[in-house]
Structures are given as C-alpha cells and as structure tokens.
Amino acid sequence: xxxxxxxxxxxxxxxxxxxxxxxxxxxxxxxxxxxxxxxxxxxxxxxxxxxxxxxxxxxxxxxxxxxxxxxxxxxxxxxxxxxxxxxxxxxxxxxxxxxxxxxxxxxxxxxxxxx
Length: 115
Fold this sequence. Notes:
The protein is an alpha+beta fold. The chain has helices at about 15-25, 85-95, 100-110; strands spanning about 5-10, 30-35, 45-50, 55-65, 75-80.
C-alpha cells in the first residue's frame, strides 16, 4: 500500500459516540469520515481517531472506499477501510470504556494476533 498523502481526523467526544461508530462502521473494518473533501477510490489515507475524554489519539492506515457528497446523504464524507484489521481492533479495544457494549463486541470480533 502506498504511503498516505492525507490525514483525516475523527474525534469522539465521549465513549457513547465511539460506541455508535463502532457498531455501525469500525466493527466492519472501517470508519466513516465526515468531510467536504473529495477522494479517489483506493486512495491511501491516514485516519487519526481522537479520544479527548482519554487525552489520546490513535492513527490507522486505510484506503478510501468511496466519496459521498453531502447532497446524496444526510452528511457528506468518505468511508475508509482500514488496511490492517488487527490494528483497528487493538485501537478499538483500547478506546472502549470498561464494561461497555462496544468493548464486549470488540473482544469477540478481534482477530488473533501473535505477540
């Protein structure tokens, strides 16, 4: 995969916002980034997942699936597919609050990794 030339940021203001995104996108190996920018399909990007409630962020490599103009849906943006599923699952597990539904789902969906 070529090196990402653009960095996109998704900020989760609270654990519940992260859980909603996890249930709809992250659990399927990607993330939806709200943006007015246009992208080419399969364009390499870096996505920074920011968690202000934990004072941290996680960067993931991904590729653009499509660009969705705001006029076609409620919000415009682009779906991104993570290029390293195990990194996405590790990032998701570390961002979930203890005891959350997203953490339980994350733990079940996480692929086995070697140490």
